Amino acid sequence: MAGAAATVTAVSSCGEGDIVDAGMQKKAKRGRPPPEEEVEAFLAAAENAMALRFAAKYNYDVVKDAPMDGGRYEWVRVGP
Predict the structure, then answer these.
(1) Closest Cα to residue 58, out of 37, 39, 72?
(2) Which of 1, 30, 37, 67 has its CA 20 to 30 A from that of 22?
(3) Which helix (H) or strand (E) holds 22?
(4) Is residue 24 situated within a structural domain?
(5) 34: burial class by Cβ within 10 Å (0-12, 13-18, 19+)?
C-alpha cells in the first residue's frame, strides 16, 4: 500500500509522576455539594416540567391522577 499513512506509537519508561509534569492538567478538587434546598427546588422544577409535558402529550393529569378533557386520547377506567 504505497502512499498509506503510517501510525507511529512511542513507548516511554517514565513514571506516572512524569506525565503530570509533562503538561497534563491535574483533576480539579471537588467542591461542596449544593444546599439541600437548592437540590429540592431543582428536582421539583424538573418534576413539574415532566408532568406538564406528560399532560400535554397524553391529556392526563398525573398530579390529580385524572384524565383531562379533550386531547388526543380517550381514557377509560378499567378497574373498580
Answers:
(1) 72
(2) 30
(3) none
(4) no
(5) exposed
Mean predicted confidence (pLDDT) in 52-79: 91
Identify residue 42 by its one-letter amino acid code: F
Specify which residues 66 forms β-bridges with: 61
Q: Is the pTM of this model over 0.85?
A: no
Mean pLDDT over all residues of the chain? 80
Q: Please report where in the chains the cell 408532568 appears, as a residue.
A: 51
In a domain, 43, yes or no: yes
> Chain centroid to CA 44: how far?
16
Task: Yes or no: say if 20 and 14 are a contact pair by the CB < 8 Å rule.
Answer: no
Burial class (CB in 10 A: 0-12, 13-18, 19+), 36: exposed
